[in-house]
Amino acid sequence: MIKIEVKELKKILEKHKLWLEGKGGERADLSFVDLRSADLRYADLRFANLSSAHLRYVDLRSADLRSADLSSADLRFADLSFADLSSANLCYANLRSADLSLTDFRSANLRSVKMFNGWKLIKDE
Fold this sequence. Notes:
Number of strands: 2
Strand content: under 5%
Shape: globular
Largest sheet: 2 strands, parallel
Structural class: little secondary structure
Distance between the termini: 33 Å
Oligomer: single chain
């Protein structure tokens, strides 16, 4: 697991913003990165690679994660309230104890997502 400083994360997000706007930059690759307890409220992480990232306790309120790769990410206790995860890949992600209030999961890949007990999505619990 790679740990990065807040300053480096900020640079990655700035480059990602340029990439999204078609002005150079580069797509954010935060796979296998330890972002535990980071403040990513309102972050634009569309199409970002967050596969196998350690996102436990991360504040992702109102973040834009459309089409992001969150496969096998650890999102336990993360705050995803009001986040947009439409078309995101959450395959094998761990969302146990995450705040999912008003989270948009339209067309997201939720195959084998761990939300409660077991390795499958339980909608009515």
